[in-house]
Protein backbone atom coordinates (compact mmCIF):
# COMPACT_ATOMS: atom_id res chain seq x y z
CA UNK A 1 0.00 0.00 0.00
CA UNK A 2 2.79 2.37 0.98
CA UNK A 3 4.64 1.47 -2.22
CA UNK A 4 1.60 2.32 -4.38
CA UNK A 5 1.16 5.64 -2.56
CA UNK A 6 4.82 6.47 -3.13
CA UNK A 7 4.55 5.60 -6.82
CA UNK A 8 1.40 7.74 -7.13
CA UNK A 9 3.12 10.63 -5.37
CA UNK A 10 6.17 10.35 -7.61
CA UNK A 11 3.96 10.17 -10.70
CA UNK A 12 2.04 13.26 -9.56
CA UNK A 13 5.28 15.13 -8.89
CA UNK A 14 6.84 14.32 -12.25
CA UNK A 15 3.56 14.95 -14.12
CA UNK A 16 3.00 18.35 -12.51
CA UNK A 17 6.63 19.27 -13.03
CA UNK A 18 6.38 18.27 -16.70
CA UNK A 19 3.21 20.36 -17.06
CA UNK A 20 4.98 23.36 -15.55
CA UNK A 21 7.94 22.95 -17.90
CA UNK A 22 5.61 22.47 -20.86
CA UNK A 23 3.69 25.63 -19.92
CA UNK A 24 6.89 27.62 -19.58
CA UNK A 25 8.01 26.40 -22.99
CA UNK A 26 4.69 27.27 -24.62
CA UNK A 27 3.09 23.82 -24.67
CA UNK A 28 -0.60 23.82 -23.71
CA UNK A 29 -0.64 27.60 -23.95
CA UNK A 30 -4.05 28.59 -25.25
CA UNK A 31 -4.45 30.49 -28.50
CA UNK A 32 -7.77 32.30 -28.85
CA UNK A 33 -8.84 32.82 -32.46
CA UNK A 34 -11.26 35.53 -33.64
CA UNK A 35 -12.47 35.43 -37.25
CA UNK A 36 -14.26 37.62 -39.78
CA UNK A 37 -15.03 35.86 -43.06
CA UNK A 38 -16.93 36.52 -46.25
CA UNK A 39 -20.22 34.64 -46.78
CA UNK A 40 -20.37 33.61 -43.11
CA UNK A 41 -21.79 34.97 -39.87
CA UNK A 42 -18.26 35.43 -38.52
CA UNK A 43 -17.71 39.08 -37.56
CA UNK A 44 -14.83 39.24 -35.10
CA UNK A 45 -16.32 36.01 -33.76
CA UNK A 46 -14.54 33.79 -31.26
CA UNK A 47 -14.11 30.86 -33.65
CA UNK A 48 -11.55 28.55 -32.06
CA UNK A 49 -9.35 27.88 -29.05
CA UNK A 50 -6.24 25.80 -29.72
CA UNK A 51 -3.03 24.95 -27.87
CA UNK A 52 0.64 24.90 -28.71
CA UNK A 53 2.56 21.65 -28.81
CA UNK A 54 6.13 20.69 -29.62
CA UNK A 55 6.86 20.88 -33.34
CA UNK A 56 9.74 20.00 -35.60
CA UNK A 57 10.97 21.26 -38.96
CA UNK A 58 8.05 22.64 -41.04
CA UNK A 59 7.55 20.98 -44.40
CA UNK A 60 7.39 22.74 -47.76
CA UNK A 61 3.94 21.25 -48.25
CA UNK A 62 2.64 22.94 -45.09
CA UNK A 63 1.60 26.57 -44.70
CA UNK A 64 3.12 28.33 -41.72
CA UNK A 65 3.04 31.69 -39.95
CA UNK A 66 6.28 32.19 -38.01
CA UNK A 67 6.26 34.56 -35.02
CA UNK A 68 9.36 35.44 -33.02
CA UNK A 69 8.48 37.61 -29.98
CA UNK A 70 12.18 38.10 -29.20
CA UNK A 71 12.63 40.22 -32.34
CA UNK A 72 11.03 43.59 -31.59
CA UNK A 73 10.53 46.72 -33.68
CA UNK A 74 8.50 49.94 -33.41
CA UNK A 75 6.28 50.92 -30.48
CA UNK A 76 2.60 51.14 -31.34
CA UNK A 77 0.72 54.40 -30.66
CA UNK A 78 -2.83 53.61 -31.75
CA UNK A 79 -5.51 53.12 -34.37
CA UNK A 80 -8.47 55.39 -34.99
CA UNK A 81 -10.35 57.59 -37.41
CA UNK A 82 -11.04 61.23 -38.20
CA UNK A 83 -13.74 63.03 -36.25
CA UNK A 84 -14.76 65.41 -39.03
CA UNK A 85 -17.52 68.00 -39.22
CA UNK A 86 -19.41 65.61 -41.50
CA UNK A 87 -19.21 62.80 -38.94
CA UNK A 88 -20.33 65.14 -36.17
CA UNK A 89 -23.26 66.50 -38.23
CA UNK A 90 -24.50 62.99 -38.99
CA UNK A 91 -24.00 61.87 -35.38
CA UNK A 92 -26.18 64.76 -34.17
CA UNK A 93 -29.09 63.51 -36.29
CA UNK A 94 -29.14 60.10 -34.60
CA UNK A 95 -31.38 59.20 -31.67
CA UNK A 96 -29.69 59.13 -28.25
CA UNK A 97 -29.82 55.34 -28.26
CA UNK A 98 -28.10 55.11 -31.63
CA UNK A 99 -25.53 57.69 -30.60
CA UNK A 100 -24.59 55.54 -27.63
CA UNK A 101 -24.46 52.42 -29.81
CA UNK A 102 -22.14 54.24 -32.21
CA UNK A 103 -19.82 55.52 -29.48
CA UNK A 104 -19.57 52.09 -27.89
CA UNK A 105 -18.97 50.43 -31.28
CA UNK A 106 -15.89 52.53 -31.97
CA UNK A 107 -14.43 53.56 -28.63
CA UNK A 108 -15.20 50.82 -26.11
CA UNK A 109 -12.59 48.07 -25.75
CA UNK A 110 -15.25 45.68 -24.40
CA UNK A 111 -18.30 46.47 -26.53
CA UNK A 112 -16.52 47.81 -29.60
CA UNK A 113 -13.21 47.97 -31.43
CA UNK A 114 -11.34 50.20 -28.99
CA UNK A 115 -10.20 53.21 -31.04
CA UNK A 116 -7.38 55.02 -29.22
CA UNK A 117 -6.36 57.57 -31.87
CA UNK A 118 -8.19 60.46 -33.57
CA UNK A 119 -7.58 63.11 -36.19
CA UNK A 120 -9.57 66.28 -36.67
CA UNK A 121 -9.44 69.26 -39.01
CA UNK A 122 -8.26 72.84 -38.52
CA UNK A 123 -11.42 74.58 -39.78
CA UNK A 124 -13.10 73.03 -42.83
CA UNK A 125 -12.31 70.18 -45.19
CA UNK A 126 -14.61 68.93 -47.93
CA UNK A 127 -16.56 66.73 -45.53
CA UNK A 128 -19.20 69.07 -44.11
CA UNK A 129 -22.13 71.14 -45.30
CA UNK A 130 -20.32 74.46 -45.88
CA UNK A 131 -16.75 75.82 -45.85
CA UNK A 132 -15.66 78.05 -42.96
CA UNK A 133 -12.63 79.44 -41.11
CA UNK A 134 -12.06 80.72 -37.57
CA UNK A 135 -11.37 84.34 -38.56
CA UNK A 136 -13.05 87.14 -40.46
CA UNK A 137 -11.87 87.53 -44.06
CA UNK A 138 -8.70 89.64 -44.18
CA UNK A 139 -7.90 89.35 -40.48
CA UNK A 140 -4.18 88.60 -40.73
CA UNK A 141 -3.63 89.48 -37.06
CA UNK A 142 -6.20 86.84 -36.08
CA UNK A 143 -8.02 89.21 -33.73
CA UNK A 144 -11.36 87.60 -34.59
CA UNK A 145 -10.13 84.03 -34.07
CA UNK A 146 -12.67 81.75 -32.40
CA UNK A 147 -13.79 78.11 -32.62
CA UNK A 148 -17.49 78.79 -32.01
CA UNK A 149 -18.37 76.84 -35.17
CA UNK A 150 -16.92 73.63 -33.74
CA UNK A 151 -18.80 73.95 -30.46
CA UNK A 152 -22.08 72.94 -32.06
CA UNK A 153 -21.26 69.46 -33.34
CA UNK A 154 -17.59 68.53 -33.49
CA UNK A 155 -16.32 69.34 -30.00
CA UNK A 156 -19.24 67.59 -28.25
CA UNK A 157 -18.62 64.43 -30.30
CA UNK A 158 -14.88 64.48 -29.53
CA UNK A 159 -15.64 64.82 -25.82
CA UNK A 160 -18.15 61.96 -25.85
CA UNK A 161 -15.75 59.70 -27.77
CA UNK A 162 -12.95 60.51 -25.34
CA UNK A 163 -15.18 59.71 -22.38
CA UNK A 164 -15.79 56.20 -23.74
CA UNK A 165 -12.19 55.60 -24.85
CA UNK A 166 -10.72 56.97 -21.63
CA UNK A 167 -8.00 58.65 -23.66
CA UNK A 168 -7.66 59.62 -27.31
CA UNK A 169 -4.34 60.54 -28.89
CA UNK A 170 -5.53 63.50 -31.00
CA UNK A 171 -3.77 65.20 -33.87
CA UNK A 172 -4.97 67.95 -36.19
CA UNK A 173 -4.61 68.86 -39.88
CA UNK A 174 -5.45 71.87 -42.07
CA UNK A 175 -6.83 71.51 -45.60
CA UNK A 176 -6.31 75.15 -46.59
CA UNK A 177 -5.40 78.53 -45.11
CA UNK A 178 -8.12 81.20 -45.28
CA UNK A 179 -8.73 82.50 -48.81
CA UNK A 180 -7.08 85.90 -48.24
CA UNK A 181 -3.78 84.19 -47.36
CA UNK A 182 -3.57 82.32 -50.68
CA UNK A 183 -2.30 83.07 -54.16
CA UNK A 184 -5.58 82.03 -55.81
CA UNK A 185 -7.78 83.96 -53.36
CA UNK A 186 -9.83 80.84 -52.57
CA UNK A 187 -9.77 77.95 -50.12
CA UNK A 188 -10.65 75.53 -52.91
CA UNK A 189 -8.73 74.52 -56.05
CA UNK A 190 -5.19 74.49 -54.69
CA UNK A 191 -3.24 77.71 -54.71
CA UNK A 192 -0.35 78.45 -52.39
CA UNK A 193 0.22 80.22 -49.10
CA UNK A 194 1.50 83.74 -49.79
CA UNK A 195 4.93 84.34 -48.21
CA UNK A 196 3.69 87.45 -46.40
CA UNK A 197 1.22 85.26 -44.46
CA UNK A 198 3.63 82.52 -43.39
CA UNK A 199 3.86 83.86 -39.83
CA UNK A 200 0.15 84.57 -39.56
CA UNK A 201 -0.67 81.03 -40.68
CA UNK A 202 1.84 79.55 -38.21
CA UNK A 203 0.14 81.55 -35.46
CA UNK A 204 -3.19 80.11 -36.59
CA UNK A 205 -2.11 76.53 -35.74
CA UNK A 206 -1.02 77.64 -32.26
CA UNK A 207 -4.29 79.46 -31.63
CA UNK A 208 -6.29 76.43 -32.71
CA UNK A 209 -4.37 74.03 -30.48
CA UNK A 210 -4.66 76.35 -27.48
CA UNK A 211 -8.38 76.86 -28.09
CA UNK A 212 -9.04 73.11 -28.22
CA UNK A 213 -6.93 72.47 -25.15
CA UNK A 214 -8.87 75.17 -23.32
CA UNK A 215 -11.95 73.06 -24.14
CA UNK A 216 -10.32 70.10 -22.41
CA UNK A 217 -9.18 68.36 -25.61
CA UNK A 218 -5.43 67.62 -25.43
CA UNK A 219 -3.66 67.84 -28.80
CA UNK A 220 -0.81 65.38 -29.29
CA UNK A 221 0.37 66.52 -32.72
CA UNK A 222 -0.33 68.19 -36.04
CA UNK A 223 0.33 67.73 -39.71
CA UNK A 224 1.53 70.71 -41.72
CA UNK A 225 -0.85 70.34 -44.68
CA UNK A 226 -3.27 67.70 -45.88
CA UNK A 227 -2.21 66.42 -49.32
CA UNK A 228 0.21 69.26 -50.21
CA UNK A 229 0.69 68.15 -53.83
CA UNK A 230 -3.00 67.83 -54.81
CA UNK A 231 -4.99 70.63 -56.42
CA UNK A 232 -8.47 69.52 -55.34
CA UNK A 233 -11.87 71.01 -56.11
CA UNK A 234 -12.27 71.23 -52.33
CA UNK A 235 -10.07 72.89 -49.67
CA UNK A 236 -6.44 72.40 -50.71
CA UNK A 237 -3.07 74.14 -50.71
CA UNK A 238 0.15 73.29 -52.55
CA UNK A 239 3.60 73.11 -50.98
CA UNK A 240 6.65 71.82 -52.81
CA UNK A 241 9.03 69.85 -50.63
CA UNK A 242 11.26 72.92 -50.30
CA UNK A 243 8.32 75.17 -49.41
CA UNK A 244 7.10 72.79 -46.70
CA UNK A 245 10.65 72.46 -45.37
CA UNK A 246 11.12 76.22 -45.14
CA UNK A 247 7.71 76.87 -43.61
CA UNK A 248 8.48 74.27 -40.97
CA UNK A 249 11.98 75.43 -40.05
CA UNK A 250 11.47 79.19 -40.32
CA UNK A 251 7.89 79.63 -39.11
CA UNK A 252 5.85 76.71 -37.78
CA UNK A 253 8.55 75.01 -35.71
CA UNK A 254 9.83 78.19 -34.05
CA UNK A 255 6.27 79.44 -33.48
CA UNK A 256 5.23 76.23 -31.74
CA UNK A 257 8.24 76.53 -29.44
CA UNK A 258 7.63 80.23 -28.78
CA UNK A 259 3.99 79.53 -27.90
CA UNK A 260 4.91 76.82 -25.41
CA UNK A 261 3.79 74.06 -27.77
CA UNK A 262 7.18 72.61 -28.60
CA UNK A 263 6.11 69.20 -27.31
CA UNK A 264 3.54 68.76 -30.06
CA UNK A 265 4.50 66.19 -32.69
CA UNK A 266 4.86 67.84 -36.11
CA UNK A 267 4.14 65.48 -39.01
CA UNK A 268 5.28 66.29 -42.56
CA UNK A 269 3.90 65.24 -45.96
CA UNK A 270 0.45 63.82 -45.05
CA UNK A 271 -0.04 62.63 -48.63
CA UNK A 272 0.33 59.45 -50.69
CA UNK A 273 3.08 56.83 -50.55
CA UNK A 274 4.27 57.61 -54.10
CA UNK A 275 6.25 60.80 -53.37
CA UNK A 276 6.95 60.28 -49.67
CA UNK A 277 10.61 59.33 -50.17
CA UNK A 278 11.43 62.57 -52.00
CA UNK A 279 9.66 64.63 -49.35
CA UNK A 280 11.55 62.80 -46.61
CA UNK A 281 14.88 63.44 -48.30
CA UNK A 282 14.29 67.17 -48.68
CA UNK A 283 12.96 67.80 -45.17
CA UNK A 284 14.81 65.26 -43.03
CA UNK A 285 18.18 65.97 -44.65
CA UNK A 286 17.91 69.61 -43.56
CA UNK A 287 19.06 69.70 -39.91
CA UNK A 288 17.14 72.89 -39.07
CA UNK A 289 13.88 71.51 -40.45
CA UNK A 290 14.44 67.97 -39.27
CA UNK A 291 14.76 68.96 -35.62
CA UNK A 292 11.12 70.09 -35.66
CA UNK A 293 9.79 67.06 -37.56
CA UNK A 294 8.62 64.14 -35.41
CA UNK A 295 7.90 62.06 -38.48
CA UNK A 296 5.95 61.58 -41.68
CA UNK A 297 2.30 60.91 -42.43
CA UNK A 298 1.03 59.17 -45.55
CA UNK A 299 -2.19 58.18 -47.38
CA UNK A 300 -3.13 55.26 -49.62
CA UNK A 301 -4.54 56.96 -52.74
CA UNK A 302 -1.44 56.56 -54.95
CA UNK A 303 -3.33 53.92 -56.95
CA UNK A 304 -5.47 56.67 -58.54
CA UNK A 305 -3.26 56.27 -61.63
CA UNK A 306 -4.17 52.60 -61.91
CA UNK A 307 -1.07 51.21 -60.20
CA UNK A 308 -0.71 49.12 -57.06
CA UNK A 309 -0.23 50.37 -53.47
CA UNK A 310 3.42 51.28 -52.94
CA UNK A 311 3.99 49.72 -49.53
CA UNK A 312 7.72 49.40 -50.17
CA UNK A 313 8.11 53.18 -50.10
CA UNK A 314 7.10 53.20 -46.44
CA UNK A 315 9.85 50.72 -45.66
CA UNK A 316 12.40 52.76 -47.62
CA UNK A 317 11.68 55.88 -45.55
CA UNK A 318 11.91 53.85 -42.34
CA UNK A 319 15.25 52.41 -43.41
CA UNK A 320 16.66 55.78 -44.47
CA UNK A 321 15.44 57.71 -41.40
CA UNK A 322 15.06 55.21 -38.54
CA UNK A 323 14.70 57.95 -35.90
CA UNK A 324 11.64 59.41 -37.65
CA UNK A 325 8.19 57.98 -37.03
CA UNK A 326 5.74 56.88 -39.71
CA UNK A 327 1.98 57.28 -39.33
CA UNK A 328 -0.80 56.44 -41.76
CA UNK A 329 -2.93 59.59 -41.65
CA UNK A 330 -5.79 58.92 -44.07
CA UNK A 331 -7.51 56.28 -46.14
CA UNK A 332 -11.07 55.65 -47.28
CA UNK A 333 -12.91 53.84 -50.04
CA UNK A 334 -13.78 56.40 -52.69
CA UNK A 335 -16.88 56.78 -54.91
CA UNK A 336 -19.76 55.99 -52.59
CA UNK A 337 -22.39 53.54 -53.80
CA UNK A 338 -25.02 52.33 -51.32
CA UNK A 339 -25.25 49.04 -53.23
CA UNK A 340 -21.67 48.32 -52.11
CA UNK A 341 -22.03 48.73 -48.35
CA UNK A 342 -21.08 45.08 -47.85
CA UNK A 343 -18.52 44.79 -50.66
CA UNK A 344 -15.90 42.50 -49.12
CA UNK A 345 -13.03 43.93 -51.15
CA UNK A 346 -13.41 47.22 -49.27
CA UNK A 347 -12.61 45.52 -45.98
CA UNK A 348 -9.73 43.60 -47.51
CA UNK A 349 -8.25 46.87 -48.72
CA UNK A 350 -8.02 47.95 -45.09
CA UNK A 351 -6.55 44.65 -43.92
CA UNK A 352 -3.92 44.58 -46.66
CA UNK A 353 -2.86 48.16 -46.00
CA UNK A 354 -2.73 47.87 -42.23
CA UNK A 355 -0.66 44.68 -42.27
CA UNK A 356 1.81 46.08 -44.79
CA UNK A 357 2.05 49.52 -43.23
CA UNK A 358 2.69 48.14 -39.75
CA UNK A 359 5.14 45.57 -41.03
CA UNK A 360 7.02 48.36 -42.82
CA UNK A 361 7.41 50.46 -39.68
CA UNK A 362 4.26 52.52 -39.08
CA UNK A 363 3.52 53.35 -35.45
CA UNK A 364 -0.14 54.36 -35.93
CA UNK A 365 -2.96 54.09 -38.45
CA UNK A 366 -5.83 56.53 -39.04
CA UNK A 367 -8.98 55.97 -41.06
CA UNK A 368 -10.81 58.96 -42.60
CA UNK A 369 -14.41 59.82 -41.53
CA UNK A 370 -15.66 57.68 -38.65
CA UNK A 371 -19.27 58.17 -39.78
CA UNK A 372 -21.08 59.31 -42.94
CA UNK A 373 -24.74 59.35 -43.97
CA UNK A 374 -26.73 57.30 -46.46
CA UNK A 375 -25.36 59.45 -49.29
CA UNK A 376 -21.68 59.14 -48.34
CA UNK A 377 -21.62 62.67 -46.99
CA UNK A 378 -22.30 65.44 -46.23
CA UNK A 379 -19.66 66.80 -48.57
CA UNK A 380 -19.97 70.34 -49.91
CA UNK A 381 -18.39 69.52 -53.29
CA UNK A 382 -20.01 66.12 -53.87
CA UNK A 383 -16.91 64.05 -53.07
CA UNK A 384 -18.97 61.25 -51.52
CA UNK A 385 -17.07 58.32 -49.99
CA UNK A 386 -17.44 55.30 -47.76
CA UNK A 387 -16.87 55.16 -44.01
CA UNK A 388 -16.62 51.96 -41.93
CA UNK A 389 -19.97 52.91 -40.41
CA UNK A 390 -22.83 54.73 -42.13
CA UNK A 391 -26.01 56.15 -40.65
CA UNK A 392 -29.30 56.25 -42.50
CA UNK A 393 -30.58 59.44 -40.93
CA UNK A 394 -34.06 58.82 -42.36
CA UNK A 395 -34.49 55.50 -40.55
CA UNK A 396 -32.11 56.00 -37.60
CA UNK A 397 -30.14 52.93 -38.67
CA UNK A 398 -26.41 52.23 -38.32
CA UNK A 399 -24.79 50.21 -41.10
CA UNK A 400 -21.56 48.39 -40.26
CA UNK A 401 -19.43 47.60 -43.32
CA UNK A 402 -16.70 44.93 -43.66
CA UNK A 403 -14.13 47.71 -43.20
CA UNK A 404 -15.28 48.22 -39.61
CA UNK A 405 -14.58 44.60 -38.74
CA UNK A 406 -11.27 44.44 -40.58
CA UNK A 407 -10.01 47.51 -38.70
CA UNK A 408 -11.31 46.01 -35.47
CA UNK A 409 -9.11 42.95 -35.82
CA UNK A 410 -6.20 45.31 -35.14
CA UNK A 411 -7.60 48.12 -32.99
CA UNK A 412 -9.47 46.00 -30.45
CA UNK A 413 -6.55 43.72 -29.64
CA UNK A 414 -3.33 45.71 -30.28
CA UNK A 415 -3.15 48.32 -27.56
CA UNK A 416 -1.05 51.49 -27.17
CA UNK A 417 2.58 50.88 -26.26
CA UNK A 418 2.60 47.40 -27.79
CA UNK A 419 5.80 46.37 -29.57
CA UNK A 420 5.72 44.94 -33.07
CA UNK A 421 7.44 41.56 -33.22
CA UNK A 422 8.67 39.45 -36.11
CA UNK A 423 5.87 37.78 -38.06
CA UNK A 424 6.11 36.19 -41.52
CA UNK A 425 4.05 33.87 -43.68
CA UNK A 426 5.31 31.03 -45.87
CA UNK A 427 2.59 31.61 -48.51
CA UNK A 428 1.64 34.78 -50.37
CA UNK A 429 -2.07 34.15 -49.87
CA UNK A 430 -1.63 34.78 -46.13
CA UNK A 431 -0.56 38.20 -44.87
CA UNK A 432 0.47 38.68 -41.25
CA UNK A 433 1.73 41.10 -38.63
CA UNK A 434 2.20 40.65 -34.87
CA UNK A 435 2.52 42.79 -31.75
CA UNK A 436 3.18 42.13 -28.08
CA UNK A 437 1.05 44.14 -25.67
CA UNK A 438 2.42 45.50 -22.41
CA UNK A 439 0.75 42.62 -20.54
CA UNK A 440 2.87 40.11 -22.49
CA UNK A 441 0.05 38.89 -24.73
CA UNK A 442 1.05 38.37 -28.35
CA UNK A 443 -1.45 39.49 -31.00
CA UNK A 444 -1.02 37.92 -34.43
CA UNK A 445 -3.23 39.06 -37.31
CA UNK A 446 -3.53 36.73 -40.32
CA UNK A 447 -5.42 37.63 -43.49
CA UNK A 448 -6.36 35.12 -46.18
CA UNK A 449 -6.53 36.85 -49.57
CA UNK A 450 -7.27 33.61 -51.38
CA UNK A 451 -10.45 32.03 -52.69
CA UNK A 452 -9.88 28.82 -50.70
CA UNK A 453 -9.82 27.92 -47.03
CA UNK A 454 -6.29 27.49 -45.70
CA UNK A 455 -4.93 25.32 -42.90
CA UNK A 456 -1.74 26.75 -41.39
CA UNK A 457 0.57 26.23 -38.46
CA UNK A 458 1.20 29.11 -36.11
CA UNK A 459 4.85 28.54 -35.18
CA UNK A 460 6.48 30.24 -32.19
CA UNK A 461 9.96 28.95 -31.46
CA UNK A 462 9.83 25.16 -31.22
CA UNK A 463 6.06 25.14 -30.67
CA UNK A 464 3.19 25.22 -33.11
CA UNK A 465 -0.57 24.92 -33.30
CA UNK A 466 -2.86 24.22 -36.23
CA UNK A 467 -5.37 26.85 -37.33
CA UNK A 468 -7.86 26.98 -40.20
CA UNK A 469 -8.77 30.29 -41.85
CA UNK A 470 -11.71 30.53 -44.30
CA UNK A 471 -11.38 32.04 -47.77
CA UNK A 472 -11.36 35.85 -47.83
CA UNK A 473 -11.08 36.13 -44.08
CA UNK A 474 -9.07 37.84 -41.36
CA UNK A 475 -8.16 36.39 -37.99
CA UNK A 476 -6.70 37.72 -34.77
CA UNK A 477 -4.88 35.19 -32.61
CA UNK A 478 -4.30 36.07 -28.96
CA UNK A 479 -1.81 34.09 -26.85
TrEMBL record:
<dbReference type="GO" id="GO:0006680">
    <property type="term" value="P:glucosylceramide catabolic process"/>
</dbReference>
<dbReference type="GO" id="GO:0004348">
    <property type="term" value="F:glucosylceramidase activity"/>
</dbReference>
<dbReference type="Pfam" id="PF02055">
    <property type="entry name" value="Glyco_hydro_30"/>
</dbReference>
<dbReference type="InterPro" id="IPR033453">
    <property type="entry name" value="Glyco_hydro_30_TIM-barrel"/>
</dbReference>
<keyword id="KW-0378">Hydrolase</keyword>
<comment type="similarity">
    <text>Belongs to the glycosyl hydrolase 30 family.</text>
</comment>
<dbReference type="Pfam" id="PF17189">
    <property type="entry name" value="Glyco_hydro_30C"/>
</dbReference>
<protein>
    <submittedName>
        <fullName>Lysosomal glucosyl ceramidase-like protein</fullName>
    </submittedName>
</protein>
<feature type="domain" description="Glycosyl hydrolase family 30 beta sandwich">
    <location>
        <begin position="417"/>
        <end position="477"/>
    </location>
</feature>
<dbReference type="GO" id="GO:0016020">
    <property type="term" value="C:membrane"/>
</dbReference>
<dbReference type="InterPro" id="IPR033452">
    <property type="entry name" value="GH30_C"/>
</dbReference>
<keyword id="KW-0732">Signal</keyword>
<keyword id="KW-0326">Glycosidase</keyword>
<feature type="domain" description="Glycosyl hydrolase family 30 TIM-barrel">
    <location>
        <begin position="78"/>
        <end position="414"/>
    </location>
</feature>
<dbReference type="InterPro" id="IPR017853">
    <property type="entry name" value="GH"/>
</dbReference>
<feature type="signal peptide">
    <location>
        <begin position="1"/>
        <end position="18"/>
    </location>
</feature>
<dbReference type="InterPro" id="IPR001139">
    <property type="entry name" value="Glyco_hydro_30"/>
</dbReference>
<dbReference type="InterPro" id="IPR013780">
    <property type="entry name" value="Glyco_hydro_b"/>
</dbReference>
